[in-house]
Amino acid sequence: MSTVAPPPLPPLSPTDRTAVRRGRNRAVVDRAALHALLADGLVAHLGVDVGDGAGRHPVVLPCAYAVDLDGPDDGGTLYVHGSVAARWLVGATDATVCVTVTELDGLVLARSGFHHSMNYRSAVVIGIARLVTDDAERARALDAIVDHMAPGRSATLRPATRKELAATAVLAVPLREASMKARAEGPVDEPADVAAGGWAGHVPLRRTADAAVPDADSPGPVPAHVAARVAALSGVRSR
Amino acid sequence: MSTVAPPPLPPLSPTDRTAVRRGRNRAVVDRAALHALLADGLVAHLGVDVGDGAGRHPVVLPCAYAVDLDGPDDGGTLYVHGSVAARWLVGATDATVCVTVTELDGLVLARSGFHHSMNYRSAVVIGIARLVTDDAERARALDAIVDHMAPGRSATLRPATRKELAATAVLAVPLREASMKARAEGPVDEPADVAAGGWAGHVPLRRTADAAVPDADSPGPVPAHVAARVAALSGVRSR
Q: With contacts defined as CB-CB under 8 Å, which chain B residues touch A111?
């Protein structure tokens, strides 16, 4: 048998269901931008369908997550986790889910209500959720979620116990089918509104961290990986 | 005919499908806390189902929103808007949707990967989306969305034109069926991990605003309502 190279990844927005329809000028097609946004984000909003028949409806819940660009899924793997008792999460196994990561970068205050907007970066990933059953992959995914919160931290912790691993469900979503939108500019007003005068502009927003708060049982100074994380998060600026 | 008072609103998590199942200690049942979170949030993640039959799946997109506690829907009304050409949005008319608003307040760095967590406030509203057809309600909703971004701003703008209103779809979701979770504390570790030593704590996160950036055509100083908004957003602190 010959070795067949995998097909190249498409640009973002490759399929009908992730194609950016509205505000097409805002679409981003560079996978590096997707990867950068997923690295910046801390919370994903995971949408799954629950219920049956006419009672079927979406539920959207916030999740910690991590990305492994070398993961086993097409385009790389996005991991989310939760309790094995979380019906909504485990019930999404083998179903199509939607994972959305949004970073809000500013309020855009135009001269008409119609042209008010926000500056943001947002990624939408649609794919079939795979329940991770391999122990090594699950342990790697959980470490990646810890390290996404604070890079370098998982190496400072004891390994997960068998009981902890048994209590934790990990879902993997392929990154192949993804789209991204971004807006990063001031207001775009009607010429007549500009001519009429009046103030318009934007308010940059960013996330910032305050100094780490040790718990009552913590010895010594804040570890270097935590201090570095606080410094990095304090420096995340919007455009 | 006698006047019948409407039934009192239930506490949060009133129905099977919004009941908080996991982390029940995190459930918030006070509607005032829900209203406060919805006032603090700027972006909602709206989940709708798209597609048919076996191809039906959720899509989650970020939206600006506003709340009218005196709105016509049971428990008050949450409004989202978009282009009338946005199929995913308009297609949700009369369907059950899920609106989730999350504020991230901190990273919780425990002594085991298992007990890592985040501090956050998150509201999940599930309800049947109503397409707002009344012109007066639609104009009120759009003003509310502008004022949610910057309180007092809509009164400084010209009214929407008929063309703008015709191009804008507004969906209303009742606030009756809602749940809320919140976490606001340091790590909760296993006693054995505490005994083993090692640092644990949390990193407070908050959103902050930088000074408003006037566009090139803006005369004079930043209006008072914009400066007040920047000051208020700069002061939003996590716990």
A: 157-158
CB contact under 8 A, B207 and A104: yes
As a whole number, the mean pLDDT across chain B is 91
CB-nearest partner of A62 from B102, B214, B217: B102
pLDDT band of A78, cuts 50, 70, 90: very high
- Quick one: pLDDT at residue B175? 96
User: In Å, how far are A13, A28, A70, A97, B169 from B87, measured between CA atoms?
Assistant: 16, 20, 34, 19, 10
In angstroms, rounded to a whole number, what is the distance separating the alpha carbons of residues B212 and A107? Answer: 9
| 3-state secondary structure (DSSP) of residue B199 | coil
Residue among A124, A121, A169, A117 at smallest CA distance from A142? A169
CB neighbours (10 Å) of residue A191? 8
**Which CATH architecture best describes the domain A24-188?**
Roll (2.30)
Q: Report how many Cβ contacts below 8 Å link chain A to chain B.
A: 307
**How many other CB atoms are found less than 10 A from the CB of residue A71?**
22
- Domain-by-domain residue ranges, chain A? 24-188
d(CA A195, nearest CA chain B) in Å: 9
- Regions of chain B with pLDDT less than 70: 1-11, 13-25, 236-239
| CB–CB contact B199 A112 (8 Å) | no
pLDDT (0 to 100) of residue B66: 98
Residues of B in contact with A193 (CB under 8 A): 158
Beta bridge partners of A65: A80
For domain B24-234, which architecture applies? Roll (2.30)
Assigned token pair, B5: 């008072």
Pairing of strands A27-28, A178-183: antiparallel
Q: Is A21 on the interface with B (CB under 8 A)?
A: yes
Whole-angstrom Cα distance, residue A204 to residue B209?
6
Tokens matching residue A207:
């996330």
Per the structure block, which two tokens stand in for B40?
């603090």
Whether residue A233 and residue B114 make contact (CB cut-off 8 A), yes or no, is no
Cα–Cα distance for residue pair A212/A53, rounded to 1 Å? 48
In whole angstroms, give the CA distance from residue B132 to residue B142.
Answer: 11
B122: left (phi over 0), alpha (psi -120 to 50) or beta: beta
